[in-house]
Amino acid sequence: MQKCYDVLGRKATGKVAIKLSMGEPGGHNFLNPDLVKQFIGSLNGTIVDCNTGYGGKRDTTESHLKAAEDHGWTKIAPVDIMDSEGEVSIPTNGGKILKEDVIGKKWLDYDFTVVLSHFKGHVAGGFGGALKNISIGIASHRGKRFIHSGGKTGDAWEMCEQDKFLESMADASKAIVDKAGDKILYISVMNNLSVDCDCDAHPADPKMKDIGILSSLDPVALDKACVDLVYASDDPGKKDLIERMESRHGIHTVECAEQLGIGTQQYELIDLDKQ
Asked: Domains in the chain, ordered, with CATH?
């Protein structure tokens, strides 16, 4: 992980936010704090997230902080729930569905964001990676509902038509990338590759072996590379994750993000073990 960070050549400076999911209580596939504690410590970073939009055990600041403690996150770094003091709206700059992105207010307090994602499947998005982590992940409790509803409401849990939801995620990603400028980078861990997200309290067990850790300054290229590595795997267990991604048209988020100018699906995959 440290090598994946160093090779990017972009140093996280100032007050550093480490955006990751601390895992829904009951789940067991989320990133292990022991795996990332040395890296997070090297950045002197604060672990950040926003409250969930669905009814669960992380939908309030109090319950979210309890989950963070129970899962071991508070033992390795400070933890900050970014919508604990409210939310703000930032523009999506040409978004197809959303005109604004409603995010946790405290994200603006940080100088740099390290987007530390666990790549895996997702019941609504097909898969979750860097783009989901900055769109849904940095959105406030209401902002998450706003994205899922395709901009219709932030006051109730409502799902819009599938492609519209995926396009809304891309729009929200654009808002974050534009606001962050060059004060952001992306690392994705491809382990515990379940078809279900870390937001699921009862996720399916992974059916395929771990792949590795990837990093990029481009979240579009990073997500595309992760998807491609699943397809390229020789593990027969990949069929379940591929079915989940394809049945939800998950790649559409990546396609829309590229169209919005967030990044490109064209990439060069460099094996750092061979450097």
From this structure: 2-274 (3.40.50)
